[in-house]
Amino acid sequence: DTPLSDRPQIVLTGYRTDPAQPAPGEPFTLTYSLSNVGGGEARRLISALGGDNGAALKPFAPFNSGNVKFVPTLKAGDTVDVVQQLVTDAASDSGAFNLPVALAYDDTRDQRRTDQQVMSLIVRRLPLLRVSFNPAVMDAFVGQSVQLNVDVVNIGRKLVNANVVEVSSPQMDIQNGSLYVGALDAGASTPIQAQGIPSVTGPAEVVV
């Protein structure tokens, strides 16, 4: 057997995604770092996302390439960044998903060594909300209060934890513009009855 002082040891030392929190149905780039913390050189390093056969990849899938990457050599003390394009299943929910990485490599005596390590990727499903004024506000006067009735509708297929919906405007003083919503089921709506007092003339921008 290879002495411990000459034996390579590959460790997953970090990873990141771009974007930082992938969304369902969207491709993203995963970059993960493999470091040789052992005493010998690693040769013919193979890194396989989701295990050797990729069975544990879900809810992710390779995009524009396979799940396996090859590194010819990795000297003791060196680190290599492995870049993999993936896409998240469009039906997946928000959450943290474990993604195993199967590693196989030879030491300097051509003894094959295997290992498996795990990273955790966070998926965030963006809410689909429709915001409208009912009725629409066409005219307002400086210093006079105007009613801002806002309807927020969840037009997505999943429940949304909206927490707080807030109405603001750089040209108006908003009153009663913050509402705790909490869970909003698919197709459900919530009204906000705010008041705005214009401080300047001209068009006013209202942000929800």
Provide key terms for this protein.
mainly beta, 208 residues, 14 strands, 4-stranded antiparallel beta sheet
Radius of gyration: 26 Å
Biggest beta sheet summary: 4 strands, antiparallel
Strand content: over 45%
What pattern of helices and strands is seen along the backbone?
Answer: EEEEEEEEEEEEEE
Structural class: mainly beta
User: Are there runs of 5+ residues with pLDDT below 50, and where?
Assistant: none
Strand order of the largest sheet: 1-2-6-4
Shape: elongated
Task: Supply the number of helical segments.
Answer: 0
What's the rounded overall pLDDT mean? 91
Q: Work out the helicity level.
A: under 10%
Find the count of extended strands (DSSP E, 2+ residues): 14
First and last CA, distance: 66 Å
What is the structure about, briefly put?
With 208 residues, this protein is mainly β. It is 0% helix and 54% strand. It has no helices and 14 strands.
Tell me what you see in this structure.
This protein is mostly beta strands and 208 residues long. The protein has no helices and 14 strands. The protein has strands spanning 10-18, 27-36, 42-49, 60-62, 68-74, 79-88, 95-106, 112-123, 129-133, 146-154, 160-166, 172-175, 178-184, 189-198. Strand 7 (95-106) and strand 8 (112-123) form a beta hairpin. The protein is elongated. The mean pLDDT is 91.
Question: How are the secondary structure elements laid out?
Answer:
Blueprint lengths: L9 E9 L8 E10 L5 E8 L10 E3 L5 E7 L4 E10 L6 E12 L5 E12 L5 E5 L12 E9 L5 E7 L5 E4 L2 E7 L4 E10 L10
Antiparallel strand pairs: 1-2, 2-6, 3-5, 3-7, 4-6, 7-8, 9-10, 10-14, 11-13, 12-14
